[in-house]
Amino acid sequence: MRSWLQRPEAKKYAADVALFALSQVAFYFAFKFVVSSLDPTKAKRQEAKAK
Question: Where do the TM regions start and end (predicted)?
Answer without folding.
Answer: 12-31
